[in-house]
Design goal:
The chain is of the alpha/beta class and 460 residues long. The protein folds into three domains: 4-89, no CATH class; 101-240, Elongation Factor Tu (Ef-tu), domain 3; 246-439, Nucleotide-binding domain of ferredoxin-NADP reductase (FNR) module (Rossmann fold), CATH 3.40.50. It has twelve helices and 21 strands. The protein has helices at 4-12, 37-46, 61-67, 84-89, 149-153, 157-160, 221-225, 270-278, 316-321, 354-364, 377-390, 428-431; strands at 16-18, 21-24, 27-32, 52-58, 79-83, 101-113, 117-123, 135-138, 171-174, 177-179, 208-214, 233-240, 256-262, 282-289, 329-333, 349-351, 369-374, 394-397, 413-417, 423-427, 434-436. Strands 9-8-12-6-7-11-10 form a seven-stranded antiparallel beta sheet, with no helix packed on it. Strands 16-15-14-13-17-18-21 form a seven-stranded mixed beta sheet, sandwiched between helices. A five-stranded mixed beta sheet has the order 1-2-3-4-5, with helices on both faces. Strand 14 (282-289), helix 9 (316-321) and strand 15 (329-333) form a beta-alpha-beta unit. 40% of the residues are buried. It binds flavin-adenine dinucleotide (FAD) and FE2/S2 (inorganic) cluster (FES). Residues 135, 167, 171-174, 211-214, 216, 219-222, 264, 267-268, 399-402, 433, 449 line the site of flavin-adenine dinucleotide (FAD).
Length: 460
């Protein structure tokens, strides 16, 4: 028999209960409280349709975290998880930020995208608790294999020593996509969960991640990262920063969220899009780029989600895979007028800057949306003005130069206004990276990155 709370939540969404199974039209959900061979049978019979699901209800949150670990994924193939402890409170519990780990990730692929971007796929179980928009810091070069004593004695170290200048400090990056064991990359297109139950549901923890990075001209770190290759081991720390619990938005009456990203600023917003879609929010995406060509994969096989690899576009295919409708995807190109992009309505393509396209959209839109933006500082400042004038609450994801990533060095500060009106500097790595736009004082006197991050070298 299902706990009464689950029965009430399901009944609210029109699901009919039969013992430990809930049914609505052609959808069925079966509940379990322990591993069972039936979970694998459900996944096998359902294939990729997501019409028949298994939900495992653990007694406590800690027990649920244990069960959804990647190493147990084969025991619960394609199952979702919930904890009785959280269900009994009747509302989603606010979880503390996950503990920071220092670890070595394994590179799966490092693929060029467009003219200046790369997509790095890597395996790192330690990031499984990362909740968007948390980020991580990584070395830009792989861990070097230690030389054996014999090699040193034979003088081989002369050839083995890598004399390429190596930045001392790690670089901060956001996760662009996470992959859950047994869940296909585009599962959100088909997943249709009872809306009242989704705040209490969790996917199996991810262990594979994608990040998208821009190779900066005349920079030290990102050009070196392009040399990373499959099998390399890279040192990282994370998850860092504060998670943003999208489940809380419903309590504020928000049903629709607009994500506005400028260039590579869109990359860390994609995991937020996935979280919003999982929790059944309506999502509209506004992407600002230089040219459509800059979204093309250089290697067709790199396109993970494109139905036709030759027609695949980075970001756009991520949005489609996350179940965002083509009519809700808007693209602005500031250099050349945008040509056709597969499946996007032509009226959603705009020649100009993305804040301008968003301003025009808001002029005709209705409802009570909120917006989240990430991109160049000037773009976010303009977005703050547009949203203030339209009465749309805006959150900004700040990307500052970082030294430590854990709140110690104060190289990432942003001037903000506290609720009592006083001004102070907040650490983006500790208090951020997501802030309410109304709290940001854009004339940040320290916004110019210090030329010396830690005092140990002119460029570290
Ligand atoms: C939370 C967070 C998430 C991020 N996510 C991504 C991501 O998903 N993809 C991505 O491509 N980049 C992301 N960045 C930015 C990324 O960290 C920088 O592009 C990278 O560190 C540059 O390293 P570099 O060694 O190549 O540049 P450096 O040699 O250190 O600097 C080259 C030039 O770039 C400028 N610069 C360096 N870092 C930044 C920065 N953070 N903001 C503004 N200017 C900077 C420097 O002032 C300098 O002029 C993120 C940053 C933060 C803080
Ligand atoms: S990077 Fe050191 S305090 Fe933020």
């Amino acid at each position: 028999m299902l706990p009464i709370l689950i029965q009430n939540l399901l009944a609210r969404d029109g699901w009919i209960l039969r013992g430990t199974e809930a049914v609505r039209k052609d959808r069925r959900i079966r509940f379990f409280n322990r591993p069972s061979p039936e979970i694998a049978a459900i996944a096998r019979h359902d294939g990729q349709r997501f019409r028949h699901l298994a939900i495992v209800i653990a007694s406590s949150h800690a027990e649920m975290e244990r069960l959804r670990a990647p190493k147990l994924a084969d025991k619960f193939p394609r199952a979702l998880f919930a904890s009785l402890e959280e269900l009994q409170t009747g509302h989603p519990v606010e979880l503390p930020p996950p503990a920071i780990a220092s670890f070595t990730a394994t590179v799966i692929a490092n693929t060029p995208v467009g003219d200046t971007h790369y997509q790095l796929a890597f395996q790192a179980e330690e990031l499984r608790h990362l909740r968007p928009p948390q980020f991580f810091m990584m070395d830009v070069r792989p861990v070097r294999a230690p030389l054996g004593l014999r090699a040193v004695c034979r003088g081989k170290w002369r050839d083995a020593v890598d004399r390429t200048p190596q930045p001392l400090l790690k670089r901060p990056f956001g996760i662009c996509r996470d992959f859950h064991p047994h869940f296909p990359a585009d599962y959100l297109k088909r997943l249709d969960l009872p809306t009242s139950l989704t705040p209490f549901l969790y996917l199996p923890a991810p262990d594979r991640f994608d990040m998208l990075y821009k190779v900066l001209p005349d920079a030290l770190g990102t050009p070196l990262m392009t040399r990373l290759k499959r099998g390399d081991r890279v040192h990282m720390i994370g998850p860092l920063g504060q998670p943003f619990d999208v489940r809380r938005l419903r309590a504020d009456g928000i049903e629709e969220v607009h994500l506005v990203g400028g260039g590579v600023g869109m990359a860390p917003l994609i995991t937020l899009i996935e979280a919003l879609r999982f929790h059944a929010f309506r999502v509209k995406v506004f992407l600002g780029i230089a040219t459509v060509q800059s979204l093309r994969y250089r290697d067709e096989l790199a396109a993970t989600f494109g139905e036709k690899p030759r027609d695949a576009y980075v970001y756009v295919d991520d949005f489609l895979a996350a179940g965002v409708a083509p009519a809700d995807i808007f693209v602005s190109c500031d250099v050349a007028p945008p040509r056709r992009i597969r499946r996007l309505p032509p009226e959603n393509l705009f020649h100009g800057l993305v804040p301008e396209q968003y301003r025009r959209f808001l002029a005709t839109a209705c409802g009570k949306p909120m917006a989240i933006t990430c991109g160049p500082n000037r773009m976010m400042e303009v977005m703050a003005d547009i949203c203030r004038d339209a009465g749309v609450p805006l959150k900004v994801l700040l990307e500052k130069r970082m030294g430590c990533g854990i709140g110690v060095c104060f190289s990432c500060v942003q001037k903000v206004r506290r609720p009592d009106g006083a001004e102070e500097f907040a650490r983006v790595c500790k208090e951020g990276p997501l802030f309410d736009a109304k709290d940001i004082l854009w004339n940040n006197h320290l916004s110019k990155p210090p030329s010396v991050a830690c005092g140990c070298a002119p460029r570290c």
